[in-house]
Structures are given as C-alpha cells and as structure tokens.
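Good day; I would like, with your permission, to put a structural problem before you. A protein sequence and the structure tokens that stand for its backbone fold form the material at issue. Thank you for your consideration; the sequence and its tokens are set out here:
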Amino acid sequence: MKQILTVGRYFKSKYKQRVRKIPISLQGFTCPNIDGSVAKGGCTYCKNETFSPSLQNLPKTNITMNFQLKENTIINEQLETLKNQFNMHSSHHKDKFDTNKYMVYFQSFSNTYAPYNTLKTLYDEALRLQNVIGLSIGTRTDCVEDNVLELLGEYVKNGKEIWLEYGIQSIFNSTLKLINRGHGIEGAKELVAKTRSYGIKVCVHLIYGLPKEDSNMMLESLNEVISWGIDGIKIHPLYIVKDTIMEKMYDVGKYTPITLQEYTDLIVKSLQIMPNNIVVQRISAGAHDDSLVAPLWCFDKNIQMSYIREKLLQAKIVY
C-alpha cells in the first residue's frame, strides 16, 4: 500500500503532535483581477464567500489593499479581526481535538497584495499569537514582491514554518484566459524556485474540471508542477456557485461539470504518480450551502471523501 503524505501526517511527523491551520479572512483584501489592475470581474468561477464563510461577517470598508496604497487606515481593524478569528477557531480546535500548535492561514483573496508595511504588521502579529508555529499564505504568482519573500525568509531563519500557496489552477494559457485569470503561466516555475530559495515551502493549487480541459491536460498540469520541485499540493474539483460567470455558462449549456467518477479517477491517477515527499493538503472541495449550483456531489464532503477513499484503497493507496 502507498501511504500519501497528508498535511496531518506531515505535521505529526515533524512536530510530534497535531497542528491545525487556522483560516483567516481580513477586510480590505482583494485581488488584482477583481479590482481591475489586470482584469475585471475576477475568475469566472470565483466567489470567495463560498469557501470562506467568515468573509460574510467582516465589517464593511471602502479601503482596499493594493501595492500603491499610501496609508492603510484600517490596519487596527485588520489586526483586531486577525486576533478575533484566531481566538475563535483555535479555541474550537483546542476544545474538540486538544490541539496546542497552530498555523495561521491567510486564506481569502491574494494575501501578499498589499503594501509591505501592512503585510509585515499582520504577519508579525500572527506569529506572536499563542502557540503559532508559522504561516500559510494564499496568493497569486503575480502578487509577490521580492521584499516580501525576504521577510518570509527571515521568519524561516528564525525557526518558523512558512508556506506560500500559489493558485496555479492550470498550466495552459488557453485555460487561464478562458477563466479570466488575468495572467499566464509564464514565470511561475521560476517564482516557485525563487520562493523555495528563501527556505519558504510552496504549495500549488490545481483545479480539475476547468472548461475545455480533458483528463490528459489535467494530469499534464500535475506533472508539470511536480517537476518544479513543489513541497505541497491542493487539488479540487471545479464547482459552480451562484452569481458567477460560470453559472451563466452552465445555465446556457456551455459548460458541463466534472462527474464524481471522472474526478475520482483523476485523483487515483494523480496520487499514483505523486512523489512521497510532496504534502497532499487537499483532494476535495465544495460549497455546503444553497450557493452551490453544480455538481451536486460537491455539497457533502463526507460522501465525496468516502467514495474517493474507497477507490483509492482499491488502488492500494492510503490517504
């Protein structure tokens, strides 16, 4: 049997105890293909609230983060949100799982897309929170400046666990254009190498089931990012939520979602070729409320994972 290096096994092996990632969503953060810097409207499938419910509870603000912002007048509110969300989630995991070590996961939008001083203030505060061993930062390949890599590299030198999570989604420029990604694949491989040169670990996100991609293309994306020397990976199916461009495509018959059987077959093939040293952080996803349009199998993660695990075991893979 092949045992996959899940994020749980990785942390347990390294720290000899359970480590939980605490998701954080901060007011004011956005993305350059939402705010019009590189594109308008965001990715065709994107609605951050569906995978980060805490966004719905954030106080409203007219201030948005970007590289040109001269003064961040909401930094104190962001710091307060950071502490409140951390305390809420960490208390839950402490009570339910007796967890004593945490990673702060800056999840929603592009969490390096802000002035350097803002990022340093937030990252520093996150690392001062009780029992935090490091950071995991979700972002895009066109949103990382050298001074931020240097800062994160200093944290690594001081013994912190630092990950950058890059949303690659696909290595095909035709696909990236079709989903209104706002950038191509050029330079991604070089950025991964540069990031890792600072001692920062890299987790790449891929989406299976993007429009006009077949199984060979999806596996080609996987093989390519593996060749970059990545440290971790997240794979999830494309699901359609309300109020997105993808919903409109689906409604008029221009897009057919991937089936659970097709997706599971791809996951089995993906994990069969996955190197043993890559941390597989996710192989499923969905929207667990009435925002989900299709496919309906993405509504219940337990049913989804039960089916996937069964097929993996038949292939002699333990996830």
Remarks:
- The chain has one domain: 15-263.
- The chain has ten helices and eleven strands.
- Residues 261 and 308 are 9 Å apart (CA to CA).
- The radius of gyration is 19 Å.
